Amino acid sequence: MNLRDLRYLVAVVDQKHFGRAAKLCHVSQPTLSAQIKKLEEYLGVTLIERTQRSVQITDIGEQIAQRARLIIHEADELVESARSSRDPFTGELRIGTIPTVGPYLLPHILKPIRTSYPDLKLKLYEQKTDEIMKSLTEGDLDAGILADLGTQDKFELQSLYEEKFVAAVPEDFPAPRRGRMTPGALKAGSLLLLDEGHCLRDQALDVCNRVQIAEATEFRATSLETLRNMVAAGSGVTLMPALAVDSAVVESRGVRIHRFKDPEPSRMIIMASRATSARAQTIKAIGKLVATTMSNYSPSLKVST
Q1: Is the dihedral angle over the CA atoms 127, 242, 149, 182 positive or is it negative?
Q2: With a cut of 50, which residues of the chain have pLDDT below it?
Q3: Quick one: how far is CA 174 from the chain centroid?
Q4: pTM assigned to the model
Q5: I need a surface site. Which of 90, 94, 269, 302 has the fewest CB within 10 A?
């Protein structure tokens, strides 16, 4: 039994298909199938039930694949530790971002990162919070950029920047009489939110539940862009992260943006990584660079006040 065979097994379990698993592992399908068969013979159990039309993973196959992931992860960390000790700012760094942060943050930080660390190759993935945490745990990601998780024993958390929430309302929505809006003013509209699994949904609900605003249960968006379009169509109101607000685009679509009165609702954006990560030095440096970049960022967006 060797790491290569364990990687083959994990690939088949993840892909549920020998052809796709072989392509992922850069080997021929007969080679991969033969190695899996040898692994089954060595262990004395059936890991995968093969038919002409499907691949079924046995219960013991699932259990062994889960342990194999941990073994592979530890082996990869060992190699990465040695490589990082030579030069921590080379090679790949895999970073996941949540959908309500990544598209709006990355244009601000990618150039400074590439300028400061030209030999570091970033691989970026967009995932929901739970998916990022799972990928971090299993070693598929080195770090994740997401909203504050609270206290976490297994992860190192680095604060990046605080992001304010703003109100997005239709053009004919009653404007605040004096200056900025209060969350309670949103009661005059139907509250639109993202679908389950998006952390922004929970954060917006936390703000709105304080002033007892009911959610529009007949509609849930899968993206901020969908929320914008629904607000523009007059279907309701919503909260949006300030970094996601492009005044020129939003207002041209029939949406008005209002800042909230102090204390403005906000969320902390953080960098999360495994406490035992071999790339700890690299991740900390990238987090510090992102924090510095965002501290110097001054929004040029004009919002309704």
Answers
A1: negative
A2: 305
A3: 35
A4: 0.73
A5: 302
